[in-house]
Design brief:
Helices cover about 5% and strands about 60% of the residues. The protein is built from five helices and 41 strands. α2 (about 540-550) crosses α3. The radius of gyration is 39 Å and the shape is extended. It is mainly beta and about 675 residues long.
């Protein structure tokens, strides 16, 4: 029979999944005959390129392909370059798969070799050797300025019979090296002496041992036995015997992987045994942390005398822990029950007195918790109360922001809150938050003490909500440059999101028989500020009493007028726009007032609103003006969002000639000549 010729050409370019490119190019070529041919594949991915060349033939009578791997090359941005150096025999059939030692060599003498012989429904054997893998290869996966040195060598020999019985041996060795990183200009380095992992699966069962040491006084040793385990699958009632011994007094590693934690010190000891079965483990022994300290500079905390002890007795675990911060202490106590490795139940109590929870320039708080924590498989529930006996809060003022202009349209403004992504553990809570007598707050115009009580609730995958009321006591509210006494201050929480309570604040300035002030209502995210007075006055006089302590008619001095102008430039007056500004100007005996600027600027008809043009103040200014004589006009502008000011004098020399001077953010003199059509 004539040989059957073979010709194969397959080419794919730029394959995408959605917006992500998953394949740049793939080429597959084949030439020759069915009995003797060559196959090549070249696949380019976004991060890797794989090249493969095969030579061999298909024996149709035996239904077996036999040949060799001529070339295998992997070029990766992360894994670097790996390539074979010699041909590797390969045989494929439905009855057996045979692979002679296939070795890939890296750029630094690293080597990975695989040999396999698999018979479906029969015995399968494999051998894997990994040599001289330098940990420098991990650098692309590590944080910047982090280095790990050392060399990995490993070997695995595995045999699995048709009955799924296992006879295997594995060894992993890590040479001595170091872990080095840089945090806040400080170099942290941890040297280690390396370690080993040995695993044997024989008719007697599984025997695994681990050893790792930093030095003679800092080491970890573990051993696990699974008696009579030598057949897949692993059963839930498989017997287990194990032990763990550890001793560490070096904690450099903590700061390396948790940069916010510094100056970690202490002594850690562990001596544990595990007995029973996988579905019914029994723990015995003690895990203990003593004389530990740690700092968290980001929140100004220094944890001292951290003690932790975990005692095992069968399925029951007893936990006792305590830590000091400031002049206070927290204590955590409880019991766990571990009926199986994936089922943990427990009850904990967290108690403390005047524990310093935060200590920053703008926030200092002490807490005294009394909480119960219930732990069940995939669930945690917290209940109880947390008292805050003392706190001083003075959050930094936010940078000034420009509100969206009137021509901005918000689509679907009332869209529902986005759902919180599901967490691995369903956490719920119902905690009373009690504010003590020494809590002060200064910010957002307020300087006050806070008292009250909130019931804070949290359900899995939902936003935290609260019920209750906070009172502002002995407080002041700064508005229009004046410290107004808080006559009534309440913050209501009615089951909504905790970050958006209702506001009811009333702050006043008393002048003889007149009370003038502001009311803050609405919600924290959408507050509403209004002026009020007793007896009832118009807005101009209310603002005058707040700012000057007298009616607008008595505001005759230049300093008085400037103070009122600054008050008009505040956000509360701005909400009423040009109309309010013009009414104020009329009450003060001025000729013109305006907010913003016009695009036209007639030199012969000066106006306050046009006085902002070319002044360096743009549209964000309140300007008032007055004619001192029919020819002499003066104006004064105050920036609404900055401290800029502008003072202008305009003098009409004749019907066509005008002289103008300005002093402020920009200063200058202009002579203008006007023509009329």
């Amino acid at each position: 029979a004539l040989p059957i010729s073979l010709s194969l050409q397959f080419d794919v370019n730029e394959l995408q999944q959605g917006k992500n490119k998953v394949l740049e190019r793939a080429q597959l070529k084949g030439t020759g005959t069915v009995g003797a041919h060559q196959l090549t594949a070249d696949v380019t991915l976004p991060q890797e390129r794989i090249q493969l060349a095969l030579q061999g033939g298909l024996n149709l009578a035996e239904q077996r392909w036999q040949g060799s791997i001529q070339n295998l090359k992997l070029v990766s941005k992360l894994l670097q370059t790996w390539q074979t150096r010699q041909n590797t025999a390969l045989s494929l059939s439905a009855k057996q798969v045979q692979l002679a030692p296939l070795c890939l060599f890296g750029e630094d003498n690293a080597q990975i070799c695989l040999q396999a012989n698999a018979i479906p429904q029969g015995q399968t054997s494999a051998k894997l050797q990994i040599s001289q893998i330098n940990f420098n290869r991990l650098r692309p996966f590590l944080p910047p300025e982090t280095q790990i040195t050392g060399v990995l060598n490993a070997e695995l020999n595995a045999n699995i019979t048709a009955e799924q019985r296992i006879d295997s041996k594995a060894t992993v060795k890590i040479s001595e090296g170091l872990i080095k990183t840089k945090i806040d200009d400080e170099v942290l380095q941890l040297n280690h002496q390396g370690g080993t992992v040995n695993l044997v699966i024989a008719p007697q069962g599984l025997d695994a041992q681990l050893a790792f040491a930093l030095d003679a006084n800092n080491a970890l040793r573990a051993k696990v036995l699974l008696p009579k385990f030598n057949k897949l699958p692993l059963k839930a009632n498989q017997a287990i015997q194990g032990e763990l011994q550890a001793q560490f007094n070096k904690f450099n590693l903590v700061s390396m992987f948790a940069p916010s934690v510094e100056n970690v010190a202490g002594k850690f000891n562990a001596n544990l045994q595990i007995l029973g079965s996988l579905d019914n483990p029994q723990l015995k022994g003690l895990l203990q942390l003593q004389e530990a300290n740690a700092d968290i500079p980001q929140v100004g905390l220094q944890f001292k005398k951290l003690q932790l002890a975990l005692q095992g007795a069968g399925q029951d675990l007893q936990l006792n822990a305590s830590v000091n911060s400031g002049a206070g202490q927290l204590r955590l106590q409880g019991k766990f029950n571990l009926p199986s490795v994936d089922k943990l139940n427990g009850n904990l109590s967290l108690q403390g007195e005047r524990f310093e929870a935060v200590n920053m320039p703008f926030a200092n708080a002490l807490i005294s918790p009394n909480l119960k924590i219930e732990i069940a498989p995939q669930k945690i529930h917290v209940q109880g109360e947390v008292t805050i006996p003392e706190a001083t809060l003075s959050p930094p003022e936010k940078e000034g922001a420009v509100n969206a202009s009137d021509d901005v349209v918000i689509i679907n403004k009332n869209k529902p809150e986005p759902e919180v992504a599901p967490a691995a553990m369903a956490v719920s809570s119902n905690v009373s938050l009690i504010f003590g007598d020494k809590i002060s707050f200064k910010g957002a115009g307020f300087s006050t003490k806070i008292k009250g009580r909130l019931q804070v609730s949290n359900q899995p995958h939902k936003l935290t909500s609260a019920n209750g009321e906070l009172q502002l006591v002995d407080g002041l509210y700064k508005a229009y440059g004046q410290n107004l006494k808080i006559q009534r201050g309440r913050i209501f929480f009615a089951g909504g999101p905790i970050d958006n309570p209702m506001l009811d604040v009333r702050a006043v300035r008393e002048v003889q028989d007149v009370k003038a002030g502001v009311k803050v209502s609405g919600t924290a995210q959408s507050p509403q500020i209004d002026l009020f007075s007793e007896p009832m006055l118009d807005q101009t006089n209310i603002l005058s009493y707040i700012v000057l302590g007298k009616p607008a008619a008595q505001a005759t001095k230049g300093g008085d007028n400037q103070a009122l102008l600054s008050a008009m430039a505040s956000s509360a007056a701005m909400e009423q726009g040009d109309g309010f500004a013009k009414k104020m100007a009329n009450d003060l005996g001025l000729d013109d007032a305006g907010i913003g600027s016009n695009t036209q600027n007639n030199p012969n008809v000066p106006s306050a609103s046009s006085a902002n043009k070319s002044s360096g103040m743009g549209d964000s200014a309140l300007t008032v003006g007055k004619y001192l004589t029919p020819e002499l006009y003066i104006s004064y502008g105050v920036g609404l969002f900055d401290s800029s000011t502008i003072f202008k004098i305009r003098y009409l020399l004749s019907k066509r000639w005008t002289l103008e001077t300005q002093t402020g953010t920009y200063s200058g003199v202009d002579v203008r000549y006007g023509l009329e059509n």
